[in-house]
Specification:
By secondary structure, the protein is mainly alpha-helical. It is built from eleven helices and no strands. The two termini are 34 Å apart. InterPro entries: Ferritin-like_SF, RNR-like, RNR_small, RNR_small_fam.
Length: 346
Amino acid sequence: MSISDQTASTAPVSDGGSASRGILGAGISEGLLLKPVRYQWAQDLYDQAVANTWFPNEIQLGEDLADFNRMTAEERHALTFLMSYFNPSELLVNKALAFGVYPYVNTAECHLYLAKQMWEEANHCMSFEYVLETFPIDREAAYSSHVDVPSMAAKEEFEVHFIRRMTEQTLDITTVHGKQEFIRNLVAYNVILEGIWFYSGFMVALSFRQRNLLRNFGSLIDWIVRDESLHLKFGINLILTVLDENPEIATEEFAEEIRQMIIDAVAMEERYNRDLLPNGILGMNAEYINSYVRYLADRRLEELGFGAHFGDANPAKWMATANDTLQLVNFFEATNTSYEVNARQS
């Protein structure tokens, strides 16, 4: 399929006015009317996001305290390390959305979804604060790690680099360069941060429940994963829509740059995971996590139309339902047409 091909499920509805334009735009007066909905996938994701609304205190984390108290020092280190990374990263995603995505899309349904996503990122931040308040975790150590631990700081700097490019430089969304910069930011945040790095951490967090530990904490992570699966779907839909409407930006050089971004992100995550589990815990070590990271990266590459790069099988098949929900699409030759946004995850 050519990227210029369009199907009814993704094609914007033309009303003879601004709706006949593409999804990108920076006009304040654009996107002020919801109907007719131009991108039904965005409206569907918004509707499901609203239906998924939850609050951290609905889960009784205090019931997990006995489990935490009998965990090993390595297990507590892993949990603290995860909180150290997740907590500031959720706020980092919010900045990326507010400054790097929201101002550059011009449809009401996309704005509605992005507003709900930003609320969800705030809710996730408060969820991790809830964990820090409930378990006897050294908050000062948890807060300082994203600066003091080189592997964690490197991941943060990678993401901050893209926010700087979106905010400190003038981004002209009407140019090829500006549109490519918009795509780079989406890949950095939606695909790499939320679609690989977060899911790597989710797997470690949920592995405790596999051993009948921290079951309520596991339920909290389930709810976060449910939100993040929609974030990933929205981001990839948005990437594909921009590419479909602006085929001139999809050069071979740009495609290779995007592919290399994902490959480089895996190396950064591998270093981070060696600090997360320097000595391993029961049933898991850094290489196990990193094999899962490479598996995830291959799935994301395939979802963007690239071939798999690493070739790792999924070592954590119990996580498959949370990660293999995206229809395979092609970054340069196809448009996503049928994401299943109403399939609930348990």
